[in-house]
Amino acid sequence: MPMRVQCRIPYPLRSLWRSAESGITYRVVYSTAERTDLCPIAGRHLKFFRYATAELRVLTDDRFHGTGRMLRVWEDPFSDEKRTRRSLDAHVRRSDEIWKRIRPIVQPGDAFDPSVIRPLLDRSTRGRLIREAAELANVQPKTIHAYLLRFFQRGMTKQAVTSDFPNCGRPRSGGAYRGEPGEKPTRRNYTCRPGRKSGAQGLHPERRYMVPGDQLACLLWQAVDLLLTEGEAPWLTALGARQTGKSKEEAASAIKKRVARELTQAKRHGQTRRATRKGRSRPSYQNVCDALNAIARTVHEARDEQGHLTELELSDVGIITARQVSYFCQSEPDVRALMAARRHGDCGPLLLRGRADRRVKGPGDKFLLDATIADVYLVSRLDRTVVVGRPTIYFLIDSFSQMIVAVHASFERPSFAAAASVIEAAVMGKQEFCAQFGFDIEDDAWPCHFLAPEIVCDRGSEFMAAQPWQSLAKLGVAISNCRPYTPTWRAAAERRWGSVPVVWQRQMVGVVECDWHEHRRARRYPWDAVYTLSEFMTHILRAVHVYHRTPLTGGFPHPDLVFSRQSNTPINRWRWGVENVSGALLEHSLSDIQLATWRHDTGLLTQRGVKLHGRFYASQATEDAYLGRLDRKDRHVHVQSDPDELGGIWVELGGFPVFCPALDCGIAMQGLSWIEHQQYADQLHENDREENFRQQPERVMQMNNARVDTESAKKRTRSALKDSGKEHPTSTGMNDARHRENALNRAVDAYSPSRSGPSRAHTSTSERTPDQPQQGRKASLKAEREAAAIELLEAATGSHDDADPEGVPQ
After folding, report:
1. In whole angstroms, what is the distance from residue 808 CA to residue 282 CA?
2. CA-CA distance, 144 to 138, in Å (whole number)?
3. b/e for 159-181, b at 16 or more Cβ within 10 A?
4. How many CB atoms neighbour CB 306 within 10 A?
5. Mind listing the pLDDT tens digit for each residue in 65-96?
6. Per-residue model confidence (pLDDT) at position 243
């Protein structure tokens, strides 16, 4: 009988073998006559597989075809020939730093010794060595673990732990690369947009995004110019109002020089020079993206006689996204440094405890009424050279959908009369209401024409008086006031003063910034006034129209709304709520069962609450615990959660469990599992992305039309100033100008032929006979109101004895 001899020759160190069944490639990290250890060259976890050398010889024999067969791999994907070679100083420093940290445990001497590797193959010994090396290098143990993983997977040499700097990041040379140090850069030719495929690409294969190249580089540098411009809204000239006559390459080069020059000046003086357009009126990434798309994608446009866009069609080829613009600005060091120098500090985020609309049943259940002083000075319609002052704006907002039910702007001080005007506007048809200011829409575009049984106010002087509101109480409309100094109770109304005005501020001139009245040399904003009250109201209505179709962020709408393919816009929430929402939602709490069955986990205390798997849970106890641990590095807490219930978690604070509901989720998150929530979130993001793309023509039209009206208002104001011999509008005597303007507004409301119903302005019906038909309108109500104002002004100027002291005919 022949004798079977087992081969105990060790395997070559660093050799590669691939499993015939799984296809996983392994590297030999340690081998003797008795045992051989293998490590997978791919994966995130450091694993070792131990074989007897004799048994592994059988599995690697060419004549063996059974289970566990191993095949030799001759090409190493991490060999020195396949490494990227670029002479980067940061790459060399980082590589030396990594090798210095792990050398004490992988190569203590001058030469590599395989016996040193053996302690690292045992899990318990490896953990101790990793902790010692981490303490010596003053880093976390997981950092040393990641370096060891790279060491074993990539060849067990010093070159195996070199940094990946040459293989990551966007090249500074605009899509060019060098094969060897000193070679001439070679520009990449992209056939499609690089990177992760957009989610909209699968739904709309016809959409083509602009690929990197000379055209995109020039457009992105133009975006930098639009973001950092110092002039008076010149970024809107990208819509076609200004032509420089330079080529795209020359324009991009000039912009680069200007950015570098301004950055040098900022570093020299410690801050940038004071910009004409500050944070309130400076364009956003989305504004700039819309302007660039209007240049690159416009297929058809139609304008009226005044230059307003009435139709706009954008192609599906050459699309530029706001994320591209943002990434370009953040990846260019000069641009990023300049934007950081201009960024102003803030007071930090607010510690939130919940949402004020959790108990709102549906649209019309509760309205929020609030007022503020607009950040712009207006001129008088009587004399465009006289500044009247800053108007007061009232918003009536639905708490459930956050729709702006009504809006009103006037020069009246906050009073019951001004508040009653916005309530009156709430019950009017919005088509008729908007036509008074030259903004034409259909009633279905703003379907809000009723009141709610409860209106919540902010304890203003006009709301604290009980007598004026008794008439509304007889109609079933109750007025309630919040506690003092609690703006978070009315967060939906307070936030609208940040999201809605920013739409019109970016296209207006003379916006009052935060530095007004700070010092004697501050800008005189009244001198920049160019709009009348009627023109300013047109800007407000356009911004409200855009806001109603802009997806809301920071909240979670009902899943039925999301899965019905509707974006989270105020108008969609309003329409869906009117048709579907009814009844009250309930909350269940079974603390004993939850504490006994829910799984244990670790959360992190933050200023927004306890963070667990990307979600936040908060209560008064978590806020107190966070403030008490500000001086401690470890803010981890023990929590218990249920993956099938995301409505809340239990947090152990001070040895006692505390229930924390989900922050910013509301009742809609009760009873949902993590998988269902992930599907819901993906669908929500897809809907919002589609809505933002479809509404791009509306945003472009709003920006263009606002710019056209601005230029027209500037020409009329400059002409009036020239005729009167003034250099700037008169800013003295604003109170008298306010009284004259209010008197004219009341007279126009009373005598305008287009006024179809009674008003609080004492409209007289005796001046029109029953047999006299109302003449058809040939122009807009805005033009008729302006004509009526001029007619009253001429009548007041031509008469002496039959005029009242205000200058308005009796």
Report:
1. 41
2. 10
3. ebbbbebbeeeeeeebbeeeeee
4. 10
5. 888 899 999 888 888 777 766 667 788 888 89
6. 41
- Per-residue H/E/C for 437-494: CCCCCCHHHCCCCCCCCEEEECCCHHHHCCHHHHHHHHCCCEEEECCCCCHHHHHHHH
Angle between the 533-547 and 696-724 helix axes, to the nearest 10 degrees? 170
Beta-carbon count within 10 A of 226 CB:
22
User: Domains of the chain: which residue ranges?
Assistant: 16-73, 80-167, 203-342, 367-550, 746-764+778-810
Q: What are phi and psi of 315, to 5 degrees?
A: -75, 170
Which segments of 188-247 does DSSP mark as H helices, in order? Answer: 199-203, 214-227
Alpha helices (runs of H) in 475-557, residue ranges in sequence order: 491-499, 501-505, 533-547
CATH architecture of 367-550: 2-Layer Sandwich (3.30)
Say if residues 496 and 696 touch (Cβ distance below 8 Å): no
The mean pLDDT of 28-53, rounded to a whole number, is 91
Report helix, strand or coil for 687.
helix
Please give the angle made by the CA atoms of 385, 386 and 391, to the nearest 5 degrees.
Answer: 125
Does 6 have pLDDT greater than 70?
Answer: no
Alpha-carbon dihedral sign for residues 107, 110, 114, 119 = negative
pLDDT in the model for residue 51: 92
Distance CA 29, CA 74 (A): 16
Q: What is the C-alpha to C-alpha distance for residues 389 and 374, in angstroms, rounded to an integer? A: 10
Q: 770-800 pLDDT, tens per residue?
A: 444 445 445 567 777 778 777 777 777 665 4
What's the one-letter identity of residue 479?
A: I
Residue 25 has pLDDT above 90, yes or no: yes
Pairwise CA distance, residues 26 & 21, whole Å: 13
**pLDDT higher than 70, residue 366:** yes
The predicted structure's pLDDT at residue 348: 39
